[in-house]
Amino acid sequence: MSVYPYFVAAWLMLVGGYGIVRSRNLVHAVVSLSVAQAGTYVLLLAVGYQRGALAPVFGSTTKPNKHVVDPVVQAMTLTDIVVSATVTALLLALAVQVNKRQGTPDPDELQALKG
Predict the structure, then answer these.
(1) Which of 50, 55, 57, 86 lies 20 to 30 A from 100 at CA?
(2) How far apart are CA 38 and CA 35, in angstroms?
(3) How far apart are CA 70 and CA 84, in angstroms?
(4) Mean pLDDT of 70-76
(5) pTM for this structure?
(6) From the CB of residue 84, how many other CB atoms can be counted at a distance below 10 Å?
(7) What is the domain partition of the chain in residue ranges?
(8) Pick the CATH number of 4-53+64-109 from 2.60.40.1190, 3.40.50.2300, 1.20.120.450, 1.10.287.3510
(9) How many helical (H) and strand (E) elements, i.e. helices and strands, does the chain have?
(10) What is the pLDDT of residue 113?
(11) Cα→Cα distances 12→1, 23, 30, 32, 94, Å
(12) Neighbours of 4 (CB within 10 A)
């Protein structure tokens, strides 16, 4: 197993985290969060990878005793993708509403909420 996927996952998470910290725009922060979440996809797939393993589908041509890839990791990756798409859509909708009500997407220029 190569260590390159782990480096790519760490790099994506670091770049996304750096983008969130340095962001001067709410939309940029949401996109940076999406980049960081892409690192989790790569990490999950790297953990579940097995060289020479078959897909976890059994039928008349494949015997159940063959070496197969763990399907739980693939299911968790798909779940991670769905959750991150939902979170991204929600955060983008919030950023649009903040921009409409406050007139700026810059988090430093937002006014305090009045109760």
Answers:
(1) 86
(2) 5
(3) 22
(4) 87
(5) 0.82
(6) 17
(7) 4-53+64-109
(8) 1.10.287.3510
(9) 3, 0
(10) 63
(11) 20, 16, 14, 10, 24
(12) 10
| pLDDT reading at 1 higher than 70 | no
First to last CA, the chain: 56
Using H for helix, E for strand and C for coil, what is the string for 30-73? HHHHHHHHHHHHHHHHHHHCCCCCECCCCCCCCCCCCCECCHHH
**Rounded CA separation 23/106 (Å):** 9
Residue with tokens 């999406």: 34
Compute and round to an integer the Cα radius of gyration of the chain. 20
Q: Which two tokens stand for residue 82?
A: 């769905």
